[in-house]
Amino acid sequence: MTWLITGGAGYIGAHVARAMSQAGERVAVLDDLSSGVAARLPEGVPLVVGSVLDREVLDRALAELGVTGVVHLAAKKQVGESVEKPLLYYRENVHGLTVLLEAVVAAGVRSFVFSSSAAVYGMPDVDLVTEATPCLPINPYGETKLAGEWLVRATGAAHGISTACLRYFNVAGAARPELADTGVFNIIPMMFDRITRGERPRIFGTDYDTPDGTCVRDYIHIEDLATAHLAAARRLAERPGTGDLTLNVGTGRGVSVQEMADLIGEVTGRPELTAETGPRRPGDPARVVASNALIAGELGWSARHDLLSMVTSAWEGWCLHHPQAPRP
What we know:
By secondary structure, this protein is α/β, with parallel strands linked by helices. The protein has ten helices and 14 strands. GO terms for molecular function: UDP-glucose 4-epimerase activity.
């Protein structure tokens, strides 16, 4: 079986390609390299440079590589940018998925894993978010991921394709420093960036109904996320025609922003740069923590890495890409 990983040269995609190839799966990557880096790919993994919006490139890649399954990660993923540029996000994330699924159906591909997001839930008011928690996205990014899930399930049901939609929670860490996330869009790299500039990390809101007043989130190590993709892909390959799986990928453990700031201070060797606080940001729910019961029962999967290894590996990657960063 050959798996085509779209967006496979990106931060998450490269880790998925690494995990699947190391586990003995035959993989290839399609990436337009707009944010991906070819050097991230494991040795021997074929790379097709192209977009999921390009049907001709897709048809050729699926046929020439003998693709039997797809892991679809290629997407725009910045929440703030999606608010400013909704048309871009719907074109890339929804229309791009439509073109890809049309090619998949035409090629007779029978397994499809879709990269979704906890953003589909919006602002859930529950202790643990289950897959049955209502989906009420609050930004265009989350909307495109929910629409993508609908499209994947409907296509799978209509054409006999086994599908899995994986709803990621907060992803961080790196398998190796060179594979680290180089963007500054999530809490950990945002705090790293300020510390590198000698500034105090920022916390938005200290009056939430949580133990220390700051938001609580579920953080998943990128290596664990990658193995979740491997487990889902293997389930679809082993049980063709089983319909759709929709699964949270998280740890089930909540970490507050204050706890994260304290740990980052220790790992970076700058505990004196205590976090400065400010007012809440619009749209930040108090608590978003995954229930991982369903993925454990369906795939026998659970997270293996702890928070310290996540932050430490992320910092090692940050330092590789930012030589000016202070060393402990």
